[in-house]
Design goal:
The N and C termini lie close together (about 5 Å). About 30% of the residues lie in helices and about 35% in strands. It has a four-stranded antiparallel beta sheet with strand order 2-3-1-4, with helices on one face. It is globular. The protein is α+β, with helices and mostly antiparallel strands. InterPro entries: Acetolactate_synth/TF_NikR_C, ACT-like_dom_sf. This is Iron-only hydrogenase system regulator. It comes from Ruminiclostridium hungatei (Clostridium hungatei).
């Protein structure tokens, strides 16, 4: 049985939160296998709301620590989901 940890991180203050979020993500960089950032952007518009999707490979303790540290940042909501095959 294979299991995957996929964390979603939503921020409603993307521009203001970038330095603190990046610092937390950098400290946990060794457990982040894949990182995808999504926000509405256009020629005349750049949304302040953003979504980051992370595929994580660390221990349960490391993943929980990352989730807790991200959730300490005002305007950020992080949630890990473990998906396993049958």
């Amino acid at each position: 049985m294979s299991c995957y940890n996929v964390m979603t991180v939503l921020t409603n203050s993307r521009i203001e939160n970038v330095p603190e979020m990046q610092n937390v993500l950098t400290k946990s960089g060794c457990i982040i296998k894949t990182r995808l950032g999504i926000h509405d952007a256009g020629e005349d518009f750049c949304s302040n709301e953003g979504l980051i999707i992370l595929q994580l490979i660390g221990s349960d303790k490391e993943i929980l620590e990352l989730e807790e540290n991200l959730n300490k940042i005002p305007g950020v909501k992080a949630r890990n989901n473990q998906v396993c095959s049958d």
